[in-house]
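Researcher: Structure prediction, please.
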Amino acid sequence: MHYFVRHIYTFTYIRKETTFITNLFKNTDIKIAFHTNNTILSQLTHKDQKADKYTSSGVYKLTCPGCQKAYVGLTGRSFLACYNENKHAFRNNSHTSTFAQHLNEQAHSFGTIHNMMVILQYQKGAHIFTVNVFTFTQSTQPTTI
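Model: Predicted structure follows.
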């Protein structure tokens, strides 16, 4: 009894060139199989988008559009959640946010997240508190002109 060991190789089918290359192995002991990356599942699932920086957490700075005063904060939630929380406090004239309270008392407007929020550090780590304190110290230092 003789056993034949057949080698099976798979190729990703792209175009006619793939068929031409695999036809070269037709009269050999090598068997060719095709597969594709274009499946129903790949068509139905969303492609990985570049992560939005506002979905991360870390140290952020909110700047008042009226007077350029800044609030530096540290959050474990997303930056977008913090922005929306301040926006909600501003619209409802709530005292849950000192930044929103400042905007309401000074009759300043509430800007977009891109105009008001600057992400200072959005990677978790032991040094994130140090970044927060250093940034706060820098932003509270008086500037002379």
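Model: The two ends are 96 Å apart (CA to CA).
Researcher: Thanks, that helps.
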